[in-house]
Amino acid sequence: MIRRIFPYSDHKIGKRACLYSQIGLCDPCPNDIEKIESGEFKNIARRKYLKNIRNIKSFLDGHLEKVRQGMEKEMKINSKNQDFEQAAEMRNKIQKLEYITSPKISVDSYLENPNLYEDVRQKELAEFKKLLIKFLPEIKKLKRIECFDVAHLHGESATASMVTFIEGTADKSFYRHFRIRQKNSQDDYESMREVARRRKKNLEAWGKPDLIVVDGGAGQLSIFLKEFAEDKIPVIGLAKKFETLVIPGGYLGTTDMRNVRLPKGDVLNLVQRIRNEAHRFAQAYHHKLFARSLFEKDK
């Protein structure tokens, strides 16, 4: 796993890029570095490679916090420079680093407590409610949480997903796919508005959630807030940048948004699990429709 975070080489210098470089485990490959003719670009590639080696040494020496802070600093710089792709890549690496260093529940723990899985889920929900109630005192329970996400490729085959978690666990019987009908499907805001309205029309038929989580920032959140204001359903957003909750000051308020960055722990685990499932479900349907459209074009 560490090699997926900090790629490195385990071979001698050769003429061709190694096999591992093709799957991102040796990046930049020393073989490729040696072939770079420009001295400036060669030095940049060398510094990148040596930085990976230094991070590996620091990690193995137990300086985890130093490594993580360095990665967060680089992520913020990329974000500030509007290099969001690199920022997202670094964010994913930070998440992988936290995953491999987080404490794991042993098998013996499950043997000692057969209800451990349910206990962990209830603890996550309790911590989540404790956090939200500071800003949204009207929240009474979090038995049913729904999360919405939109997926498309430059407006092609735009889809959206609704995933439902009951008592902190995914319940696929309540999942729903949405095929975006509007013409300008590249507009995420309009796509979200369409999804919110279609969900509202089926509020009684599909059931009423205790909380709606929208994958996005204040813009996407405000759309759902307006649609569900009369139904008194709490809605929050989840911005991908730094895993930040976007919490409104009220049901109708699109101002006074509070950004709450989630620390490592139970709430982050729960929210990430919900958001990742919504993303997976939306992407799966999007890929299906996109593949179908390519097949139809070839006819």
Description:
This is Excinuclease ABC C subunit domain protein. Residues 65-100 form the UVR domain. It comes from Candidatus Woesebacteria bacterium GW2011_GWE1_41_24. Residues 121-222 form the UvrC family homology region profile domain. The chain has two domains: 2-101, no CATH class; 115-298, Nucleotidyltransferase, domain 5 (2-Layer Sandwich). The chain has eleven helices and eight strands. The protein has helices spanning 2-5, 30-35, 39-60, 64-80, 84-101, 107-112, 116-132, 188-201, 203-206, 218-227, 266-298, and strands at 144-153, 156-166, 169-170, 176-179, 211-215, 235-239, 244-247, 258-261. Strands 1, 2, 3, 4, 5, 6, 7 and 8 form an eight-stranded mixed sheet that branches. Helix 7 packs across helix 11 and helix 8 (188-201) runs parallel beside helix 10. It starts with a helix and ends with a helix. The model has no long low-confidence stretch (mean pLDDT 85).
Query: Sheet with the most strands?
Result: 8 strands, mixed
**DSSP E strands, number:** 8
Order of helices and strands: HHHHHHHEEEEHHEHEEEH
Measured on Cα atoms, how large is the radius of gyration? 22 Å
CATH superfamily of the largest domain: UvrC, RNAse H endonuclease domain
Low-confidence stretches: none
What is the number of helical segments per DSSP (H or I, 4+ residues)? 11
* % residues in beta strands: 15-25%
Structural class: alpha+beta
Number of domains: 2
What is the straight-line distance between the termini?
43 Å
Helix content: 40-55%
What is the CATH class of the largest domain? Alpha Beta
Instruction: Determine the mean pLDDT.
Output: 85
Overall outline: globular
Looking at the overall shape, the CATH architecture of the largest domain is 2-Layer Sandwich
CATH topology title of the largest domain: Nucleotidyltransferase, domain 5
